[in-house]
Each structure stands twice: as C-alpha cells, then as structure tokens.
C-alpha cells in the first residue's frame, strides 16, 4: 500500500491532522505528544495515528510514512548499542543533501535532528553523548545502512501489523557499521549527572532497559 491507499482509510479528522504535517518538525511534534508504549508489540502507522501511542520502532515507521508524504523516501536506520541497552530506530531524511531525523524515544535527547549533517555517520554521532543506559554508560556502538520501507509496500506496512516483524528482522540482516574501536570503548567516561537527568526528563520508567 502506498500513501494514497493509506489516506483512503482515514476519516475526515485523521486526514485533516495529516494535512498539518507539513514539515519534519511537525511530524516530530505529533510523536512528542503521544504516549510512549512499553508494550512488546509493533504498531503500524495507522495504529499509531489512531491509538496515539508507540515506541521507537513504531514512531520511526510512522515518521517515515509521513515524510514520504513530503516527498522523502521512507527510510529508517537502526542505531545499535552494546548488550547493555536497547537499540533505537530513526526515520531519516535529506534536505539539500544534508541528513536529519525524526524519532520517538523514551529519552529526551534521542529524538529530532535538523537536516544539517553532511553524512549519515555524522548524524548518528550527534546522538552519541546522549545515548546511555540507566547506569549512565554511553552505549551506542554502531548503526545500519538505511532501510527503504517502500520494499514492503506490497505487504501493507502502513496499515497492517503483519509485516512489521519482517521489517525488524531485515534491520538485523542489512549492513552494519561500527563506530568505536575497543580502545575507544575502554576510555569512555560515564555520562555526567546533568546530562543524565536531562535525558530522562519525562521518561516512562517502565520502558527503560532493565540491567541485571
């Protein structure tokens, strides 16, 4: 299903809401205003719109769908941590060749980025200092190449939950890029107290990665 078919499923109020998403920042504002889901399920963009809840995967797919309406390719990228944290999915876009991102997150710093980054790696590295776990450990270690969700159009990812597991599986299969050497990891300092407190501002404790 493409954008036209998706919008045909919407009622008048839902179509009016989508009409207000005229910029990436506007899409981000919608995601910031909905609840963070702690449920271990995936929601397609239609469910996110109607239920007003989602976690980072759901939010990234929703943002990719809305960015597509603005002429962007529906691209998502998975940011990869060490084994002591959750991964984090972004919808990425480009303006005049520069990368930006829209995202739903339980952490304040892992959300929107303006399209000012010259490369995808530069964009991902903008999240490094604010990507940490509940112990204050900086955990970001890599990222995937962008996944174009138009490859799943025939499986109705916009309005059905059925193909979402396949999308998640595909993120695990595509090319991954490492960010740090072992020596860099060994030298990492913990996040400072103020950044820690700022990052957790407004978070839902139930949705935080549980360390043993």
Description:
This protein is α+β, with helices and mostly antiparallel strands. It has helices at residues 3-8, 12-19, 24-33, 45-51, 56-69, 120-125, 164-173, 182-187, 193-199; strands at residues 35-36, 53-54, 75-81, 88-95, 98-102, 113-117, 140-144, 147-148, 176-178. It has one domain (3-207). The strands form two sheets. Strands 3, 4, 5, 6, 7, 8 and 9 form a seven-stranded antiparallel β-sheet that branches. It has a two-stranded parallel ribbon with strand order 1-2. The longest helix is centred in the N-terminal third of the chain and has 14 residues, at 56-69. It is globular, with a radius of gyration of 17 Å.
What is the element layout, followed by pairings?
Blueprint: H1 3-8, H2 12-19, H3 24-33, E1 35-36, H4 45-51, E2 53-54, H5 56-69, E3 75-81, E4 88-95, E5 98-102, E6 113-117, H6 120-125, E7 140-144, E8 147-148, H7 164-173, E9 176-178, H8 182-187, H9 193-199
Salient structural properties:
212 residues; two-stranded parallel sheet; 9 helices
Number-wise, the strands total 9
Q: Helical stretch count?
A: 9
Oligomeric state of the chains?
A: single chain
Query: Considering DSSP H and I runs of 4 or more, what fraction of the residues is helical?
Result: 25-40%
Outline:
With 212 residues, the protein is α+β, with helices and mostly antiparallel strands. 35% of the residues lie in helices and 18% in strands. Strands 3, 4, 5, 6, 7, 8 and 9 form a 7-stranded antiparallel sheet that branches. It has a two-stranded parallel ribbon with strand order 1-2.
